[in-house]
Amino acid sequence: MLEMNQSESNLRQTLSHPLSCVISDGFYVKGRPHPRLYGTFPLLLGEMTRERGWLTLAAAVHKITEKPARRFSIPQRGRVERGYFADVVVFDPSTVNSPGTYEMPALPPRGICHVFRNGGAILAEGVMCSSMANS
After folding, report:
1. Coil, helix or strand for 111?
2. ∠ CA(94), CA(99), CA(103), 5° rounding?
C-alpha cells in the first residue's frame, strides 16, 4: 500500500521495485470521489513514467496489467492474447496524465483515446491522441 504522504524517494523506490505492481482501490461514491478513481493509472503513465522517468513505459504498463492479474490469480486478463478477454486502453504516451486534484477529483484523464472491456467499446471516441492523429 502506498500513501502519497511519504517521501518522494520512498515512492520512487517502491514504484520502481521489480516486485511491485500498481492497482487502485478507487471506487464510485456519492459526492466527491478520491482523485485515484480516475487518475491512478494515467498518473503512473504520465507523471511517474514520462515526466519523472522512474519506469519505462513497458514496465509501467506491465505493472498495471499482467503483473497484478497474475499476482491476484485473475485468469485470462492482463495480456493481449488469444483466449483472453479483450480489455484494451488506447492512450497517447506523450499526453496521458491525470489533472485530478483533491479539490477537483472527477476531472477525466488526458490522453485516453479508446477503452474496450471484453472487446466492447466503453469509450470509443475519447480525447484526440496527438501522436496517433499524425501517424
Report:
1. coil
2. 170
